[in-house]
Design brief:
single chain; 166 residues; PNAcMuramoyl-5peptid_Trfase_CS; mainly alpha
Length: 166
C-alpha cells in the first residue's frame, strides 16, 4: 500500500476549507431553519392503523424542519466549485454528491406535501433505482474514463474484477 504524503500547503488549504465550510454552514443554518419553519417544510408523521404505537411515538417530530441535507451538500458543492474545480478527480464526487442530494430533496418535498407511496415520499424501490443509477454512472466513469478495474481490500490486497467494476 502506498503512503500518501501531503505538503504543508495542502494541509493548510484542507484545514482552511474545512473551517470555511463550517463557518458558512453555521451562518446559513439559522437562515435555512427560519425559511423551513416559515414555509412549513416540516416532517409529516403518517398515521397508520397497522402501526399506531410507531405513529404515537413519533408524533412529537411533526413539524420539525426537514431538508437539512441541503445545508451540507450545497455548502460542499459551492466550495468545491470555487476552490477545486480544476482537478479532474473532483467531477465524479461532485456529481455523486449533487445527484444524491437532489434525490433526497425531492423525496423530502414529496414527503412534506404528502405525495407518493402511502402519502409520503418516494417508494423505496424508486429511490434505490435512482441511487443505483448514480452509482452506475460513477462505476462507468471509474472503469472507462479513469481505467480502474480493481478493488483494494486493506490487509488482503488488490482484486482485479474487470468489467464487473460496473
Amino acid at each position: 500500500m502506498e503512503l500518501i504524503v501531503f505538503s504543508k500547503i495542502e494541509l493548510i488549504r484542507f484545514f482552511w476549507l474545512t473551517g470555511l465550510s463550517f463557518l458558512i454552514a453555521m451562518i446559513w443554518t439559522p437562515l435555512l431553519t427560519n425559511f423551513l419553519y416559515k414555509n412549513r417544510l416540516g416532517k409529516r408523521i403518517r398515521v397508520d392503523k397497522n402501526t399506531p404505537i410507531f405513529s404515537k411515538l413519533h408524533q412529537h417530530k411533526s413539524g420539525t424542519p426537514t431538508m437539512g441535507g441541503i445545508l451540507i451538500w450545497v455548502t460542499t458543492a459551492v466550495l468545491t466549485l470555487v476552490f477545486n474545480l480544476e482537478r479532474r478527480a473532483t467531477w465524479l464526487p461532485l456529481f455523486a454528491l449533487v445527484s444524491s442530494g437532489i434525490i433526497g430533496a425531492i423525496d423530502d418535498l414529496l414527503n412534506i406535501r404528502g405525495i407518493g407511496a402511502h402519502g409520503g415520499g418516494m417508494r423505496f424501490r424508486d429511490k434505490f433505482l435512482l441511487y443505483a443509477a448514480v452509482a452506475a454512472v460513477g462505476a462507468w466513469w471509474f472503469y472507462y474514463k479513469l481505467g480502474w478495474n480493481s478493488i483494494h481490500l486493506p490487509g488482503v490486497g488488490d482484486f482485479t474484477i474487470g468489467g464487473w467494476y460496473i
